[in-house]
Amino acid sequence: MTLSSFTSKSSLMLGKLFSLSLVFSVLLSSLSLSPVASSANTLIIGEPSEELTIHRDLFGQFSEHIGEGIYGGIWVGKDSAIENVNGIRTDVVNALKALKIPVIRWPGGCFADQYHWREGIGPREDRVSRLNAWGNIIETNQFGSHEFMEFIRQIDSKAYINVNLGSATVKDATDWLEYLTAAAPTSLAKERAENGHPEPYKVKYIGFGNEAWGCGGAMTAGEYFSRLKRYSTFALNLNPEQQFSGIDLLFDRGASNPHAMIKVAAGANDLDTEFTEKMMQLWAQAPGYLPIFDALSLHHYTMSRGPMSDSASEFEHSEYLRFVAMAQEMDTILKAHSAIMDKYDPERSVGLVVDEWGNWLKPDLATNPAFLKQNNTLRDAITAGITLNIFARNAARVKMANIAQMVNVIQAMVLTQGEAMIVTPTYHLFKMYVPFQDAQLLPVDHKPGTINVGDKTIPTIDAMAARANDGSVWLALINIDSEHTLTVEPVLGTVAIKKAAGDVLTSAQVNDANSFKHPNRVNARQVSFAAKGSQPLKITLPPASVSVIQLSTKAIK
């Protein structure tokens, strides 16, 4: 997260964060919108010149101790009247399992640099209570390491643990990793067993701090890197199945393990390319046998004047197009940082990790605005689809992404209200995109119509194609035009496409949202298409919609 507190004393941080969003201010202050409809266009799907995998971790999630993101959203306790398994609410688990979530980042965010892991283990009646700056509420620490690991077990996901580099010590980080992952009977491993889990856990990713330039310590890149080196050297994964990372390479230069924990350094915000330049420069100068980090994070939220400045559901057509234009800026941002990383790492051994992204809007679903519980409309699903397509097209460098956040916070998949639960348009979008996990990106060539947004021109259709592991070909087709039904004619080499089927997500208005009274207002529905005689297959795209379509093909003899 990018705010450490919502008290009046935090105005300095707010001002800084708001200024970071000025990368878009010139665009937003001079919009003149005039949509231009396009005719049907041919969409040519080619074969890639090099194999590029859309890594499944691009569809990752993020869960932080903010408002109802954990308590009430995931954790209700074993004695709750809400159906649960080991204190974790069953309806949320069942909903999230359908998304096949590959990885979840926890416990923050800014909260990570205030979090002390020992306060969240052991008997719950003995756990330490703290004041959580997000809303000035009591953090009971009832949901700690074991509860998080139980949660990801229930939804069949993997752990991205963000350790405290801001207010804790290197020893705290090393002890936490030993507690979680040690298989040998160390004192910490025995303590973990006494707390209910004899077997070592697996940690796929470890993040060292969060937003070092802001709430993580207001450090320069040089200051952060100097601090990072000790954490990276000593905070090791001790699970035998994940060995050969970090200091292990000192003893075996050829050591490698595809299951080794991936070390993520806190990186830049938005277009702060100077931060990335310095981090990569220092990374390149470090001893080759001791990589300081395997991936570098990047945070970027879609918002006009800063966090919580845009209405979540009360907006005009021009505001919808404005957000689409802003969402497409993700491509520019990724390419800017990737170009710098390419200078120091031409082999692309360091991944770019966008572990906070999404539409950060005005909170309007909770009484405490610091809970960041906002409405979720069709617009959010469309911009999320555009962003996922951009990640896929930049998958040579981008290896993981984590939308903010999974439950009840910012652009959530799921909203809860007491015993009730609903899924959002963004949830449906992520469910539709499951076939793209670990699929091979295919190049797409098409000439869609355009929409003028001030001095910018955006396409009416955003398209992405991929081949799944079973050989099936999938299309993600986003009709950005909210006024016209559009048609595409897919072409796949010497293959005749006779049928296509999938799901489409749309609604009557782009600001339509699901609510506890109307939980299915925005929902995905099945669609199918068939070629007529010798004519090419045509796929129709409703206004303001996302369609994920599987092509049925037959080779032309």
Helices and strands in order:
Blueprint: H1 11-20, H2 25-29, E1 33-35, E2 41-45, E3 53-54, E4 60-62, E5 84-85, E6 88-89, H3 90-97, E7 103-106, E8 130-132, E9 137-139, H4 145-155, E10 158-163, H5 170-181, H6 187-194, E11 205-208, H7 221-234, E12 262-269, H8 273-285, E13 295-302, H9 317-327, H10 329-344, E14 351-359, H11 378-393, E15 398-404, E16 414-417, E17 420-423, H12 425-432, E18 439-442, E19 444-445, E20 450-453, E21 456-459, E22 461-467, E23 473-479, E24 486-491, E25 495-506, E26 523-530, E27 539-541, E28 545-555
Parallel strand pairs: 2-24, 4-7, 4-15, 7-10, 10-11, 11-12, 12-13, 13-14, 14-15
Antiparallel strand pairs: 1-20, 2-19, 3-18, 5-6, 8-9, 16-17, 18-22, 20-21, 22-23, 23-28, 24-27, 25-26, 25-28
Helix pairs in contact: 5-6, 8-10, 9-11, 11-12
Protein architecture, described:
With 557 residues, the protein is α/β, with parallel strands linked by helices. Helices cover 24% and strands 26% of the residues. It contains twelve helices and 28 strands. It has an eight-stranded parallel β-barrel, surrounded by six helices. A seven-stranded antiparallel β-sheet has the order 3-18-22-23-28-25-26. Helix 11 runs parallel beside helix 12. It is globular, with a radius of gyration of 23 Å. 52% of the residues are buried.
Kindly summarize this structure in a few lines.
The protein is an alpha/beta fold and 557 residues long. It contains twelve helices and 28 strands.
How many beta-strand elements?
A: 28
- What is the distance, rounded to the nearest whole angstrom, between the alpha carbons of the first and last residues? 56 Å
Secondary structure: helix percent = 10-25%
Low-confidence stretches: 1-38
Oligomer: single chain
Structural class assignment:
alpha/beta
Strand portion: 25-35%
Strand order of the largest sheet: 4-7-10-11-12-13-14-15
Number of helices: 12
Supply Rg.
23 Å
Arithmetic mean of pLDDT? 90
User: Which shape, going by the Cα principal axes?
Assistant: globular
- Major sheet details: 8 strands, parallel, barrel
